[in-house]
């Protein structure tokens, strides 16, 4: 009888708390679960107001209205770099949702390799309650070093005397990704760990430094497709251009301190690569519909009759 009474009490508490816990729904999402150390780790946070009224979310002297809880795979909590951070106030109308993308890398010391559990939490002063998302796991590892050099910092280009420039490969489940890392090893500052995109081959000749120690990288992204990227000595992207190989493979050429791309045909890297574009009707002969080469039902589909 006692156990039954306890069960009834627990059921009543659950029934009382369930509607309350559903008043704010918090969800987090990552594009992938595997990251290279120091690269941006973008977490998409979605906050849905199911309270039936407009909620004003703001920090209080005792509580921040939004926070992440991060711990290692062994359960060790990872505190934020600045425990006294402040959130901008946010108003969420009833029934509405707010989506924000947050980079965890500058907020938490995630420099150790391993698995981390991440959870987002919202505190509502009006409701006097915390609302948390489910835990998600991410893994941080190091890429495979392909190329590395230490260069000087030109006068006026930034603090410090040297930069260590590294090109890394990172194997994801379906492809290999290329990364650029620029750091001041003496000061312990990482200026960037930038994902350059997929690649299928990389040679030492595919990276050059010009006279101002700007970084030039040419990566083979697909058969006959190449991506050229230029970064300054602090790892900031200066220029990016796609190249399609023709009779000659594009290569980097350095002459009198200037680096350029020789060979290939330029195309916009944000557009569909040339090798994936459908040929225009004028680029191919159209056979007459003889009995041997009459159009098939597949040939008559609208998407096969139009050019891009």
List the helices and strands and how they pair.
Layout: H1 2-21, E1 24-30, E2 34-36, E3 42-49, E4 55-57, E5 66-72, E6 77-78, E7 90-92, E8 97-103, E9 114-124, E10 129-132, E11 136-141, E12 144-152, E13 162-171, E14 176-184, E15 189-198, E16 207-209, E17 215-222, E18 225-231, E19 237-244, E20 251-255, E21 258-262, E22 265-267, H2 302-305
Parallel strand pairs: 2-11
Antiparallel strand pairs: 1-3, 3-8, 4-7, 5-6, 5-9, 9-10, 9-11, 12-13, 13-14, 14-15, 16-17, 17-18, 18-19, 19-22, 20-21
Characterize the overall form.
elongated
Structural class: mainly beta
Helix content: under 10%
Roughly what fraction of the amino acids lie in strands? 35-45%
Return the average pLDDT rounded to an integer.
84
Order of helices and strands: HEEEEEEEEEEEEEEEEEEEEEEH
What would your notes on this structure say?
The chain is mostly beta strands and 308 residues long. 8% of the residues lie in helices and 45% in strands. A hairpin with a 4-residue loop joins strand 9 (114-124) and strand 10 (129-132). It is elongated. The relative contact order is 0.10. The strands form 6 sheets. Strands 2, 5, 6, 9, 10 and 11 form a 6-stranded mixed β-sheet that branches. The protein has a 5-stranded antiparallel β-sheet with strand order 16-17-18-19-22, with no helix packed on it. A 4-stranded antiparallel β-sheet has the order 12-13-14-15, with no helix packed on it.
Provide tags for this entry.
elongated; disordered N terminus; 22 strands; 6-stranded mixed beta sheet; mainly beta; about 300 residues; 2 helices; 5-stranded antiparallel beta sheet
């Amino acid at each position: 009888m006692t156990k039954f009474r306890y069960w009834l009490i627990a059921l009543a508490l659950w029934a009382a708390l369930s509607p309350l816990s559903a008043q704010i729904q918090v969800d987090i999402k990552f594009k992938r679960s595997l990251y290279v150390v120091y690269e941006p780790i973008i977490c998409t946070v979605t906050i849905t107001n199911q309270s039936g009224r407009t909620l004003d979310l703001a920090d209080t002297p005792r509580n921040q209205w939004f926070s992440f809880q991060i711990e290692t795979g062994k359960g060790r909590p990872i505190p934020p770099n600045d425990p006294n951070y402040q959130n901008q106030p946010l108003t969420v109308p009833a029934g509405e949702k707010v989506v924000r993308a947050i980079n965890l890398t500058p907020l938490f010391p995630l420099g150790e390799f391993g698995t981390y559990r991440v959870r987002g939490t919202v505190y509502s002063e009006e409701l006097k309650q915390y609302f948390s998302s489910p835990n998600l796991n991410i893994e941080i590892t190091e890429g495979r070093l392909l190329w590395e050099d230490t260069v000087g910092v030109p006068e006026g280009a930034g603090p410090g005397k040297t930069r260590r420039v590294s090109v890394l490969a990172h194997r994801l489940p379906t492809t290999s990704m290329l990364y650029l890392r620029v750091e001041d090893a003496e000061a312990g500052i990482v200026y960037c760990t930038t994902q350059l995109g997929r690649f299928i081959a990389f040679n030492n000749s595919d990276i050059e430094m010009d006279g101002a120690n700007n970084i030039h990288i040419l990566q083979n992204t697909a058969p006959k497709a190449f991506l050229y990227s230029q970064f300054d000595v602090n790892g900031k992207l200066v220029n990016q251009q796609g190249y399609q190989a023709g009779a000659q493979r594009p290569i980097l050429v350095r002459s009198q301190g200037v680096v350029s791309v020789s060979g290939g045909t330029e195309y916009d890297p944000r557009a569909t690569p040339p090798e994936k574009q459908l040929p225009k009707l004028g680029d191919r002969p159209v056979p007459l519909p003889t009995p041997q080469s009459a159009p098939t039902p597949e040939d008559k589909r609208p998407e096969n009759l139009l050019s891009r």
